[in-house]
Design brief:
The complex is a heterodimer of chains A (257) and B (318).
Chain A: H1 2-26, H2 28-36, H3 50-68, H4 79-88, H5 93-120, H6 129-151, H7 156-170, H8 176-184, H9 193-223
Chain B: H1 17-34, H2 36-57, H3 103-131, E1 143-147, E2 156-162, E3 172-182, E4 188-194, E5 205-207, E6 216-218, E7 226-231, E8 235-237, E9 244-245, E10 251-253, E11 262-268, E12 271-284, E13 291-295
Antiparallel strand pairs in B: 1-12, 2-3, 2-7, 3-4, 5-8, 6-7, 8-9, 9-10, 11-12, 12-13
Helix pairs in contact in B: 1-2
The chains are: A mainly alpha (257), B alpha+beta (318).
């Protein structure tokens, strides 16, 4: 039956036309395929999903945060009231604020789980040391997000916890007093402190996080996923000419055996 | 065949100038807090050492480029190909005349340099806008707590006031004020203790009855309202981490590293005026006869005396 087959191939062609159009002009389809359909070791399992879980938690934070910013007012006189309005009055506000609030903890906890997995599986070893370092920077930046976000509800807990947090920074040797002054935006917590934390929380630090996560993923794609420590797969030949035999599997991009 | 060294990775030689450069930068930063002439000196050191560093680092690039000798038969030495108007289009260059610093490298350097300059012109003021306002104009206004009669002798009052009435509620601060009467020399004496815990800055509470029903207001309803509430504290203690102080502000228990900060005061037309804050390591004696070990205001958690105070050589301007 040649005719249905021919028709089907034509349907496929028509359906794929937009994608082909895009691919021809940008290579984006191939790029996405390259990113998503990578070769991974045959015996990895759920433990290796913690990184993408963390990424998902971060994206949830980014999305809910952007929308909360549409209703939140970073001003000492109205911040608390705007939070009350988001929680109690605006439709679904309680849900989005709750997602952002609890999602913050989920993000931090998942980062630690992911880090524990990488540590216990020795996945930080050659050639992935740099990705561990970037991961540590992401952890520190993520914690800073938590610190700056905690002030924003502008209630008693938020205020005094931030006072204590800033003053803990202030007790660092030599640079501490300057750091605390920078965080407060002055010698005392004042009208500028809240907007300052808000700007750090929603613009500066997320920008840094996006950049660091981009680097982190780039290295994951470039170096491949490491195996389990108990793997029975054969040790592959060294991925880099002249490099030690490492855990890189499959071979890094652009290297022929 | 001579290798072209400029195609190989270039490893700059060891140089000591970066150290001088760093010292200059430190000089600028310290100078920002200490004095403007120090900034100028630091900047001069940084510029000089930075220049020498760049010179050092670039020294490898200033070597003479070795050209491979030409082995092909030389073309006949004649006039260059004629251009349309009948004269030579280009002069013939001998080997000595060939550029050692080609235009392409000049263009490359000037593109990078101009880019960095433009980037710097845009970025530096913006970063300054982020950082500098936190460090300048930090002088606090004097705070008028109203007539001294509101502070009966020998009794603590909780005074709540605004350090910056325009900023509103966020500038609300509290002090514990005790009028000590006159000293031996006949000078008025007040003990005015800040409620900022010397551990990490939580609000210290009086340990004793607080007579809310006897609260007095000065400038009631205005932006510089002062509330005065009598109290009889046996001590002061902090709700956050349990720091505890006696009625002179000396630490008696818990994590604080020193005593409570105090306010300097003045009497103006019979009004009690708070002027400045200072830190206290400890107080010997009580009331008007107390001997106060006084230091420049430090942040909570910072030692003001002993070895640990060396950890905090720089205090941000208050």
């Amino acid at each position: 039956m040649a005719r249905p087959a021919a028709r089907r191939s034509r349907v496929i062609q028509v359906t794929n036309y937009p994608l082909d159009w895009l691919e021809e002009r940008s290579g984006l389809v191939g790029g996405v395929k390259y990113f998503l359909f990578r070769k991974v070791p045959s015996d990895i399992g759920w433990w290796h999903t913690l990184g993408s879980a963390t990424l998902t938690a971060f994206l949830v934070q980014a999305l809910t945060g952007v929308i909360l910013a549409m209703y939140y007012k970073p001003d000492p006189d109205s911040a608390y009231d705007s939070i009350q309005r988001i929680t109690n009055e605006i439709t679904l506000g309680w849900l989005v604020r709750g997602m952002h609030r609890w999602g913050a903890s989920v993000f931090i906890i998942l980062m630690f789980f992911h880090m524990a997995r990488v540590f216990l599986f020795s996945a930080y070893r050659y050639p992935r040391e740099l990705n561990w370092i970037i991961g540590v920077l992401i952890l520190a930046t993520g914690m800073f997000e938590g610190f700056t976000g905690y002030l924003l509800p502008w209630d008693q807990t938020a205020y005094w916890a931030s006072v204590v947090g800033i003053n803990i920074n202030g007790t660092a040797p030599v640079a501490g007093p300057l750091l605390a002054q920078f965080l407060r935006g002055g010698s005392e917590i004042g009208a500028d402190t809240l907007p300052r934390f808000y700007s750090l929380h929603m613009l500066l630090i997320p920008g840094a996080l996006f950049a660091l996560i981009g680097l982190h993923l780039y290295l994951v794609v470039r170096l491949g996923v490491s195996t389990n420590p108990w793997t029975k797969d054969e040790e592959p030949p060294s991925a880099r000419p002249g490099g030690r035999s490492g855990l890189t599997r499959p071979a890094a991009r652009g290297v022929t055996k | 065949m001579e290798p072209n060294r400029h195609d190989e990775p270039h490893q700059p030689g060891a140089s000591l100038w970066p150290i001088g450069f760093a010292i200059g930068i430190v000089g600028v930063l310290v100078g920002l807090i200490v004095s403007w002439p120090a900034v100028a000196v630091g900047a001069a050191i940084a510029v000089f050492c930075g220049f020498m560093w760049v010179r050092d680092a670039g020294s490898g690039y200033r070597d003479v480029i070795v050209h491979e000798p030409e082995r092909r038969a030389a073309p006949p030495r004649g006039p260059a190909p004629p251009a349309t108007d009948g004269r030579d289009a280009m002069p013939v260059m001998s080997d000595e005349e060939i550029e050692r610093f080609p235009r392409s490298r000049f263009l490359e350097a000037s593109t990078l340099g101009l880019g960095a300059l433009i980037g710097g012109i845009v970025t530096v003021p913006v970063l300054g806008f982020m950082v500098v306002p936190a460090f300048v104009d930090q002088d606090e206004k004097d705070i008028n707590l109203g007539p001294l009669e509101n502070f009966p002798e020998g009794q603590y009052q909780i005074a709540t006031f605004f350090t910056d009435p325009e900023a509103g509620e966020v500038s609300r601060r509290t002090a514990f004020v005790r009028n000590n009467g006159l000293t031996k020399d006949g000078v008025p004496s007040c003990t005015i203790i800040s409620n900022r815990c010397a551990h990490l800055g939580c609000p210290v509470q009086p340990g004793g009855p607080v007579a809310d029903e006897d609260a007095k207001k000065v400038n009631e309803g205005q932006s510089d309202e002062v509330t005065i509430i009598p109290t009889q504290p046996a001590n002061f203690s902090c709700p956050c981490h349990g720091g505890s102080y006696d009625t002179e502000g000396n630490r008696i228990a818990g994590p604080p590293v020193r005593g409570l900060d105090r306010y300097e005061f003045a009497l103006r037309n019979g009004d009690l005026v708070l002027i400045d804050t200072y830190s206290v390591s400890r107080v010997e004696g009580t009331g008007a006869e107390a001997e106060i070990h006084k230091y420049r205001l430090a942040g909570p958690g910072e030692h003001v005396d002993g070895l640990e105070s060396l950890l905090y050589p720089i205090q941000a301007p208050h």
